[in-house]
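Dear colleague,

Following up on Tuesday's group meeting, I ran the structure prediction for the two-component complex that the binding team flagged. I've pasted the input sequences exactly as they went in, so you can double-check that nothing got truncated or mislabelled along the way. The structure tokens for the whole assembly follow below. Feel free to forward this to whoever is handling the docking comparison.

Inputs:
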Amino acid sequence: MDAITISNLSKRFKIPHEKKTTVLDNIVGLVTRRVSYEEFWALRDVDLSVKEGEALGVIGRNGSGKSTLLKILAGVMFPDRGSIKTTGSVASFLALGAGFQAELTAKENVYLYSSILGVSNKEVSRGYYEILDFAELRRFENMKIKNFSSGMYMRLAFATAFHTNPDIMLIDEVFAVGDQTFQDKCREKINEFRKRGKTIVFVSHGLDAVKSLCSRTILLDAGRVVSMGDTEKVVKEYLAMISGGAHA
Amino acid sequence: MWKHRELLRNLIVADFKIKYQNTSLGFLWSLLSPFLLALVLYLVFRNVFRGEQYYAVGILVATLAFRFFSVGTSACLSSLYSKAALITTINTPRKILVLSDALSTLITAILEFVILLPIIWWSTKHLVPTIPLFLVAHVLLLLLIYGIGLILGALFIYFRDLAQIWSVLLSVLIFCVPIFYPVSIITQETVRQIYLLNPLTRLIIIYKDVTIYGTLPSVYDFLVVIGFAAFFIVAGNYVFNRLQRRFAEVM
């Protein structure tokens, strides 16, 4: 069964020549009739399906549309054409710790962030110490996170996010967190998710991470899927593409 | 909305904790400032309309009611923008963010009115039995704030000077509602009709009626306010739904 079905998906951005962000700018723009912008297709005619329990890698150069694809999957952006269907709950780990409040304690933030991610207080309470132990922050549960180091902050965010238990996980380049041991722990955790039959879409520039996690990978270039299939093969094509310089 | 009630509660609790735990007087301090403002207005204006019964205490009631509106709409205006990270990365129910800010101001406004009660008692020498009805007025005002807040919050993502524009509009509006003067000074009938169309004017009349004069507001007053509240809720949802599709791109 397919967890994600994407057909004919296109996303267009309008990039104005002069960005108008105020009412005044817009009134001036209307009067002088200089409302010029360029169109830019971040994604073009993407067809893709991801099976339940599959880990799909997404690779490509900067600006190839990887993040846009994830944002559409996450439901924070909407396509201009085409359709997208997901079955099951989706959790997006695009920016960890979004919704953290510096003035609140670690404990308060775990509950708040979980609830933003759609987890009930009851469920959080059940696994609360698991979260803190995974983040190695049990001693600091009542400390305000404005006093946390960036490593502690990210570890707490990771641990909380991992505890959401979604059906589909969208992960964007979040491995560069904490020291080697913590990174290994995270990788282990993601592998564990995969074994439990979760669907994972993984965007990364870290080709080794993609290779170790994903069996199938797509390569995006200028918004199009230029290659899809076995990870080893697609990664090789990608390497050939960037060493070749020009478009593949 | 109902299924997000826990998120709503968590957001409101967090909001209160952040706002008030860092001041030494805590929550008391936040209640003190509107009263100091009201006190200044009271001292300045109390002798202006000497003939008007309960004029001075009316200023207090009306100021706090107007403050509920201005603080509430301003909070809704910035509520999405200040949580940009949520808008661009997580599929949070976005209207809940606006609603949580509106509800936070409702709670503060209820507490402000409770503190107002002894002041009303002290200056009018009695408390009228209709006083609990201020809660009904609060709920109507909340609906108005939420509906307008949805529009402001969504537009603010696109127009960054809306905050300044709105604060200017609010300071004009404060003179278009009966805070510093009684409605009776408007004698020309057509002007009066237009003046009374403003739902905030009606609400302030309702507030004064139920907290000071002890009279039940007319059904017509209620209907005007409910009509406007319903209109803004529908319009707010429509505008919000249209604009929210591109929030994550524009931010």
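Chain B touches chain A through 29 residues (CB under 8 Å).

Cheers,
M.
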